[in-house]
Amino acid sequence: MALPFDLIIRGGTVIDGTRAPRFFADVALRGDVIAKIGDLAGVKARREIDATGLIVAPGFIDAHTHDDRLMLSAPAMAPKVSQGVTTVIAGNCGVSLAPVTFKKDSVVTPPLDLLDIEGVWFRYRSFSEYVRHLGSAPAATNAALLVGHTTLRVATMADVKRPATPAEITRMQSMVTEALEAGAIGVSTGLFYEPATAAPTEEVIEVCRPLKGFGGVYCTHMRNEGAGVMDSLEETFRIGREVGVQVIVSHHKVMGLPNHGRSRETLAFIERQMKAQSIGLDCYPYCASSTILSADRVATASKVLITWSKPHPEFSGMALDEIEQKMGKPRVEVISSLLPAGAIYFAMEEGDVQSILKFEHTMIGSDGLPHDSSPHPRLWGTFPRVLGHYSRVLGLFPLETAIYKMTGLTAKTFGLAGRGVILEGAFADIAMFDAETVGEATTFSQSIAPAHGIANVIVNGEIVWTAGQSTAARPGRVLRRT
Length: 482
Ligand code: ZN
Ligand code: CU
Prior knowledge:
Distance between the termini: 38 Å
Shape: globular
Radius of gyration: 22 Å
Number of helices: 16
Bound molecules: zinc ion, copper (II) ion
């Protein structure tokens, strides 16, 4: 006789992703959906998981990632599933893997090199080619994809150090349309980074025009997250208004000593403006940032760690001060001899990080950089750190709120139907963890390690992480925005 369910998760405490209080229940799955929630004593299934003492939550949605290539080159997605993440939003900060290609041995234009310094993974001439590839060789996690403005600039402009011409804008618009038709959920920009710094607001507005017809979203690593943060918020909101779409402020932060405490201003402005237009934001739970190495950024930080260096791989993981002593050269020369390289910058204030995390509308996003040799600990640690350090230890918010910020809120903000909730009929993306022990295992000196307390992770009804290890299942799908 056929059993009514494929899998029953028994005896756990459900936190459903809506901020509702927790409750005891068994959860039964059939295929890729949650079929029944309740007391299922006496009901049989093909397979059972004992979740006694565990929280059963919706799988986490990483609101901000650079996993475009990781899904192809390391499809087990260990840095993510080990934290309970079941869906990633990829293509952020203006940087998407498609649609741009590089010739062999050519230099990959920074910051696109954060996905692949060699350029061999930049092989998709169209976004649909990339989406097809992800469909035929799925990863362990689901993904929702953004097409990057910097990628489009590099693909269409002979000289990226100036504003795009009307003809170039037209080409970028047709590539945006192609990406959205292929399933992308929106466009991202990285206006902070060269060469996108050369793009005026009007260029971004024009490139984003096709978004409106598709109900797409505009995500941005803003032009300035320091002294000019308020102007940058205004620019972001203007782009949203003029294009007529939702905007997402990526990894919201305020950087540099003179700006510490200014999250009070930025959050008040965001909250006020949310009444007039659709705005979302995400944040990672650390007061150090990480990106490519640049002298400008070094100047604003109290401490700098090197995460990778092409000419000097031996220095990855070391402090810039230490490298200066070893090389016996002035700082500017040391920096240029390390390039291309990546770094971690300590330039935020803990109070700002906590205010932003706590803000009602803030989603959790890791901004993890999976190809760095000594990555920022956020890559493996973001979600357990919010659950453990910020919720359990510091009591910044209840566990129900922490989970909402990484599930229900994120699914709602990005329009991912049937995701981010434990509900009958929803997709069976589930994270099970021990609320008493959950926490990140990574630190700034030991930055690659699976988190503590994550027991089982399920994507589309299939177990992708259990007993501290990835399984062979690769059930990930490309999700569209609804
Ligand atoms: Zn960014
Ligand atoms: Cu980013």
